[in-house]
Amino acid sequence: MFALVDCNSFYASCERVFRPDLRHAPVVVLSNNDGCVVAGSAEAKALGIRTGVPLFQVRELIRKHGVAVFSSNYTLYGDLSRRVMATLQSLVPTVEVYSIDEAFLDLSMVPEQQLQALGEQLRERVERWVGVPVCVGVAPTKTLAKLANHYAKRRGSGVEVWCAPHDWRDSLAQTPPGDIWGVGRRLAARLADLGVNNGADLAALDYAWVRRHFSVVQARLVRELNGEPCLTLELQPPPRQQIIYSRSFGQAVVSLPPLRQAVNDYTARAAEKMRGEGMLAGRISVWLRTAPMGKPQQLWPDSFSTGLPQASADTRELARLAIQLLERLWKPGLHYGKVGVMLTELCTAEHAQGGLFEANQARQGEKLMTVMDQINRSGKGRVWLAGRGMKAGEQCLWSMRRAHLSPAYTTRLSDLPRVG
Fold first, then answer.
1. CA 260, CA 266: separation in Å to the nearest integer?
2. Is residue 234 part of a domain?
3. Do 280 and 310 touch, CB atoms closer than 8 A?
4. Chain segment 77-100, per-residue pLDDT in tens
5. How many structural domains compose the chain?
6. I need a surface site. Which of 68, 87, 314, 348 has the fewest CB within 10 A?
7. Rounded CA gap, 275 and 295, in Å?
8. Which of 155, 175, 210 is the last residue of a domain?
9. Which residues contact 70 (CB under 8 A, 6 or more apart)?
10. Does the predicted model carry a pTM greater than 0.85?
11. Are 90 and 110 part of one and the same domain?
12. Does 13 share its domain with 135?
């Protein structure tokens, strides 16, 4: 048996944790640069505020109904996500973190008659310990657990437990194929052409026929819908193939120095993330995108990339190459709205091809980066390359617009709420 625990309106729920006055109020969270709505509470959705709608289109609705608006606070959401996962592990040791707000749990050792009570306990503990509401779907396969969770939200039960085919038969018959985990838009269209109109029709297909006409992945999906587990928990995430750091600017940038500063900053952040996972990069890419300022401008979608002589996680080496690529890309007279840095050809130090003459230099760079990371994680201060600017991480010309950003309640001492 598997359980899928999914946080309800996660971003909006995170903003409510330290704002009890918003417990039953409509709340929306905006995308980068406060451009459009990326998440909303149930109350906001009931007002007709859809995910993906541009902010300017719903400003009057927000003003009329007093909707609370927040910029995306990824530091807060990431920390509360870690707390949710740790809380789940306090009751069920085997947990696969599927996304920032979802986790699969292994319940194979739990007696069937205790599954409902455990689901209720999981909901109660996460809400009590973290303050984030969740729903729980329990079933013999991950695909069915995902669907059970969907109906736990839709029906308002909070917990749905499916143990035998008769438990999920009616729900499958009510579910369009496109709402089933693993069925994308193109596959749903192909299934509709074949007369497969709901999940029950999909589950009734012959495995061998599906494998011949589609693939083994879809054949496994059919088996999963019939209660035969084909997907196991992935307790160790697969190694990354790439690390991308890219942000839109809060305003158009027309000169090269701010772009250099942004690229230095993004490269340092990507390198720090890569070092945290014990990886090295063999190639780095940089791309630029223009920002239209009242009239169409020429876009430069092509990026430049270059390989490293030796795979590295040294921010200095990566930043030097990134700036060289940026200077090749930059065209004077254009208004730029976005820049991105991508690290690829990732490998571990054990699998990296060493150099005959660079070994000692690489070891020195590794020690320096280790010291930098230790200082930056200590909470006592931060160090960075001067190319990132004198106030790295603070507001710069190229920084995102985040006019409605909430405090870093859980990660910055100065932002701790005070009760007096």
1. 10
2. no
3. no
4. 999 999 999 999 999 989 999 999
5. 3
6. 348
7. 42
8. 155
9. 11, 12, 15, 27, 28, 29, 30, 404, 405, 406
10. no
11. yes
12. yes
